Amino acid sequence: MDFIDGSMFPENQQKLVITAAPYGPEWIPSDFPEDIPVTMEQQIQKAVDCYNAGATVLHVHVREADGKGSKRLSKFNELLAGIRARVPDMILQVGGSISFAPESEGDVAKWLSDDTRHMLAELKPTPDQVTIAINTNQMNVVEQMCAADVAGTSLAEPANYRAYREMTIPAGPEWVEEHIRRLSINGIQTHFQLANIAQLETVERMMRRGSCNVPLILTWVAIGGGFEAPNLYNLANFVRACPNGSVLTLETSMLNVLPLNMMAIAMGLHVRCGIEDNLWTQRRDRKMGTVEQIEQLVRISREFGRDVANAKEAREIYKIGTFYDSANETLAENGFAPNRKPGQVGFTQHARR
Known about the structure:
Helix content: 25-40%
CATH class: Alpha Beta
Strand content: 5-15%
Number of strands: 10
Radius of gyration: 20 Å
Oligomer: single chain
Order of helices and strands: EHEHEHEEHHEHEHEHEHEHHH
CATH architecture: Alpha-Beta Barrel
Largest sheet: 8 strands, parallel, barrel
């Protein structure tokens, strides 16, 4: 991404898109009973509350009636239908892991099978997005957490801590390409959840081969443990690697969430918050629910002079419903240099329009 003069001026930036992640599949209800929705009506109402607070993208996981993270697609269908009826304009982004939470005592935290995750392309009503990981990768979500982050929660229990420490994401090239194909056929946008520049480079290569003809809508997930750490140097390198036609959201965990989101607001990027990412205020004097986190970002963004996108504007920014017909179109629309033609030497650039 190029930051020319005036790029930091709010009048030259897109309006801010806020993604809310209020369902927190790594937690159990007793970890934050005031804010973790359990019944289907509570889960639907949580989406409504996030939307009313200013979030226009909802990262969706679902719970069973006993509070455990659900792995049943029928429950996702039920939740999606309920949210669509109440906030029809909200962008519904289903988490591609479905739920990595253990099903019962003694089970490990893990992502589900390739075939099960492919079924996300068949959800009804159709979500707007499904998130996807690129390249099989360690997902040790507790590596950069400290004792204070998990104090008093189920992640402080040794067995649970170890399960999340040993979690991996299966995302090999054949599965990834097939999953993107299925999502696109069903009109679902692929939202890339990327851990590092190497994964971004894999996406670019897929686009160059014509196996990924979609907008580059992505999140930099800086959570450590196989992902990049949320520091200024990693962020700057990743942002520099993103082409100008991409749409970038920042995600991290615990007390890193607010400072990273403030950077995103200042830079014209987009933000994600919610109890899936963080439970605490910056002083850790109390837990902080998803709606309060959204309200905080709305307030800060307005202080920066940057307006928050409404649902219609967020759909335009995120290019919901947009797909491309060829590698050439995909590269041009996302801001990559074109593929090299036979015999062409030197650096490539797109023709002037």
